[in-house]
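Continuing from the previous page of notes. For each protein in this section, the sequence appears first, followed by its structure tokens. Read the first protein now.
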Amino acid sequence: MQKKSLFSEFTKGIIKENPVLCLVLGTCPTLAVTTSASNAIGMGIAATAVLVCSNAVISLLRKVIPDKVRIPAYITIIAGFVTIVQMVVKAFSPAINDALGIYLPLIVVNCIILGRAEMYASKNPVLPSILDGLGMGVGFTAALLCMGIIRELLGSGSVFGVQLLPVQILIFILPPGGFFVFGMLIMIANKLNGRKGKKAKASPCDGCPLSTNCNKREEGVLDAD
């Protein structure tokens, strides 16, 4: 049972509670860096590393950090890991660092990371918090990668620098194309989650001219299944 629970903590962030496509968090970096697949995967990996590490530390310190200063404490912890990640990216992949630009240090204020710290890591043990951060990071990376591949393929005809299509639809690497792809992916995610509009059940009182003054309707007798 415990293994199943831990597995669900990891998988929930991939589709069911995908931070980008279902919770609609981190929209600014999502739209800004997904002009290419390589940028998308770079941002996703960086954010995942910060998510996992910050969740682990915040969970460890959840009983030590005073409630009144918890948000500044979380931001300080997250900022420390973002600085480490940025230094690693600069050292090993300067091209990705240049491509991501200001959005790499802005991971500090990413709603996904601060949200998981406040809503989950601060209330749960270390292992579930790590799996929660990893699952959310994988979901975030998957959403960015999908957007990056679609936008790069349609906008420049290539993926990861490999030319695949002779046609280039430049609007897909511009903001309007980003919003269009983003909307389409949100629709697909909602379909996968089975989020369909549910019609309200018809009541036996509907259409009755006396329904507004009917005691049985007020008592909920006729509305019961």
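Done with the first. The second protein uses the same format. Note its length before scrolling.
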Amino acid sequence: MEFKTIEKIGEGIILEKKSKFIGKAFYIENSKQAEEIIEKVKKEHYDARHNCYAYRILEGNCILERQSDDGEPARNSRKSNA
């Protein structure tokens, strides 16, 4: 099975309408490691209103996917026929 993965830790910041969005990317090998990193980031950014995450891991022959929007309001999206 071939797939793309993260080689090194990455971080990006976007400022929009007085809000600051911080994105981080980590290479992980299992769900335990993912949960540890999520908790570490939550402690690092304890004052954040939302801590959203997503991960996808190959464990054995199964793909494990988890995500959370941490209560972030959803946007309605519309498709247009152009």
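What the second structure shows: The CA atoms of residues 57 and 78 lie 31 Å apart. The helical segments are 31-44. We return to this in next week's lecture.
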